[in-house]
Amino acid sequence: MKFKEVNKLFDLSGKVIVLTGSAGLLGSQYADILSDAGAKLILVDKNSKQNNKLKQKLNDKYHTNPVSIDTDITSKKEVKELANNLNKKFGHIDGLINNAFLNHAKQQSKNGKNSFETFPIEVWNKSIELNLTAVFFCCQEFGKIMARQKKGVIVNISSIYGISGADQRIYGSSKLNSPVSYAASKGGIVNLTKYLAAYWHSKNVRVNTLTLGGVQDNSYQNKEFIKNYSKKTILGRMAKKEDYKGAILFLISDASSYMTGSNLIIDGGWTAW
């Protein structure tokens, strides 16, 4: 059975899509589904070793010849150079997915809980720099190219903790917690998205947010935390790493052509109670 209309809606053949944080747990999942849809992927991650492995894996599987790039997206200069070089090479930039972020939870599982009252300014600055300022830089530089070509799609990744308060009760003895800098930066993403969608209203540049629930990662989450978190969701579990692949494809493709300034929340029902 052939699904011609479905295939047309989700087809990314020939489209240049920039994906930050590509080598991570979710970034690699996004890269897989986007490559399957035919995208010309630009994989941007500071972890060159993992990023190159991903590039090879995707090319072996889909033969889309993705590009792996090590760029510091917290540097305005490097982001500008990246955007200009890619535009010069390909002649167009069709999509940007701002996925890179600082995972405090992994670090805190080693170092213990940081309360708000004693939260280090150095950690706050580092988190805001990557989670929000880097997104600002990428939207500026890639967005201006999209505005000039009068076509493009930007997807910014946020979290349920950017739209609701973190329930500190679920962390128990895990030594994890959701820090203030994460909440502030992810909340900023939601409103940055709305601002940009309105700002580029006449340029045919669509900007949306994908807000995620917690993803199970046994490398640092203990059983107590996973159990407590799962009880808070209607579906009774944390997300699997592959659960967001359909959403990212929808948002970056023509399937969402009448959607901009919106926040797609996929959280297993966490915010619906």
Structural class by sheet pairing and helices: alpha/beta
CATH fold node name: Rossmann fold
Give the count of helical stretches. Answer: 9
CATH architecture descriptor name: 3-Layer(aba) Sandwich
Helical content band: 40-55%
Corresponding CATH superfamily = NAD(P)-binding Rossmann-like Domain
The end-to-end distance, rounded to whole angstroms, is: 39 Å
The strands making up the biggest β-sheet line up spatially as 3-2-1-4-5-6-7
Indicate the low-confidence ranges by residue numbers: none
Order of helices and strands: HEHEHEHEHHEHEHHE
Shape: globular
- So what's the CATH class? Alpha Beta
Describe this structure in words.
- The protein is an alpha/beta fold.
- It has a single domain (4-272), classed as Rossmann fold (3-Layer(aba) Sandwich), CATH 3.40.50.720.
- Helix content is 44%, strand content 14%.
- It has helices at 4-10, 27-36, 48-62, 76-90, 104-111, 121-149, 180-199, 223-231, 245-252, and strands spanning 16-20, 40-44, 67-69, 95-98, 152-159, 205-212, 263-266.
- A seven-stranded parallel beta sheet has the order 3-2-1-4-5-6-7, with helices on both faces.
- Strand 2, helix 3 and strand 3 (67-69) form a beta-alpha-beta unit.
- Helix 2 packs across helix 9 and helix 4 (76-90) packs parallel to helix 6 (121-149).
- The protein is globular and about 50 Å long.
- The mean pLDDT is 94.
